[in-house]
Description:
Strand order of the largest sheet: 15-3-4-6-1-18
Number of domains: 5
Oligomer: single chain
Amino acid sequence: MGFFSKTRLKASDLMQQAVAYLVSKYDQAASVFTAASPFGQLLVVMANMAELVFTYITHTAEELNIETAQNAETIHGLSRLTGHDPWRGSSAYGAIRVKLNTNTNYIDGKYVIINNFTRFYISETGVSYFLNLNSDYVKLQVDNSEFITLNFMQGEIESQTFQSDGSPLQTFNPIIQSMTDHNNVAVTVNGEEWTKVDSLYDMPADDGFGSGNCFMAKSSVNVGLTIMFGNGDFGAIPPNGSTIVISYIKTNGSAGNTAFKDVTFNFTDSGIDESGAEINLNDILIIENYIPASLGSDYENPDFTKMIAPRTSKSFVLANPDNYVTYLQKYTQFTHIHAWVEKNDANIQDDGVVKLRLLPNIKKKLSPNQDYFDLPLSEFVLNTDEIKSVGRALYDSGQMLVNTDVEIVNPTLSRFVINVIIRYFDSANQISIRTDIRNIFSKYFLNINRTDIIPLSDLISLVEGIVGVDTCDIFFITEKNEQVFQDGYTYITTKTDNRNQEISVKNVIKRNIGDEDPRLGFDDFGNILIENDELCIPKGGWKDRYGNYFTPNPEIGKLGPLNIFFINSVDPSSYNQNLQARLNKLLKENN
């Protein structure tokens, strides 16, 4: 088939080339090989089959390259060759505080026992959870009115049983029809729990005393679960005929996250009172949502796998800031992740500390009747409980270096207000325009990903696209600039390099401003300027230099984070006539 052009692999093109070759080779008329002839029909079939073969070859070649591959299983499989373990999902977890209510008529005796792994569901999410205690059970005393804290996880614990054949490097693939928690996998061999490690080289040699009782848990090519044991030199081999039980958590991923503390808990498992009788926990418990369920995430997206596989730590540890960013990007609760290590500054105590700045995904915190402007300021950064959850997730991963500390640093919140001046058409409804502006600005700030500026031009273009708006002007007022006018002075930070010590020393100088406007928070174009450690939010709760108070959230008839002023209206017909007259004048002047 050397006469075929490799750039023309369609069936019709292959057919034409074949006919041209046969006509030339055997000195026959082209009509002999039309589809009406038996030989022509054979050519049609063969040409179509050849096209399918070439299509398969082309697709196969593309699937061998992770950059061009399209099949999710192929992408995940190729990423395994780079040392990357595709994320299988993670269960949301949190904590509740419980105590017995004052009505003890349901209880026979002096206490109630709640077992570990007791199940419940949250009405607002519709998915199941279970208690994840540090002991087999907790005991609530009838005469104790204090709350106790109980950790929980989302999902269902499931196990599958296999039998060892005594061969080295045994591999088992449980059949699972849903996501599983990536970090929580347990394996027992004849009832004895074995240790989970990240690679074959982390398995000690089998010394006969249990030090080599290890296993690896990896994602299979379809984001399922693969369990592998050692070969004797690296890790122990489960004895022939031994029973292997693989336990994992089937999770709903991000569906298990709860953005609000006001949720309803319903226990599906019972407690046990002193007499041994089962008791409905919903009848006897007062429950507080102490740490809302968070950090649940879904299967790893293949596009994300393509991007992240080359950056994965080949040693399976969180060794540098990039590794932390890579790991935390698996979770969907953060819109921005920045990690760094501070060096060459005056504070040598933090040189070994990895610092993290994480911005929560505020979309997940909105209730159905809320928009961006309704969220309180505290929701824009991680609270203490969320910071603890991140620290726990990093610790549970088992990938942190022993001598590494992590510090989660919230950005500095800088508030500003937006003033919109509208010229509108006579026929337009001002209330409708106000509603449209608020809605479109809410969507804009929920989705903006810029970390340098907030451009005036973006907002102006959005407003001028609203029906009824002729033209508009927008300007910002920043809290920090107004505060300078109230204080009468500002601070200037400079750096002095000490080459001998290889550090930079910050010098803070107090300077009176007088009548000068320092324009803090703005660039030269009037855009909001975002500093490296800053999060700029349109939010009130402060006063300007003239004593005007901006309410935290928009309120009708009051100044707030979004102020809309209508200065005058334009008659649509006369307006259009004026536009046409101006256009005609411009055309005449340029001819």
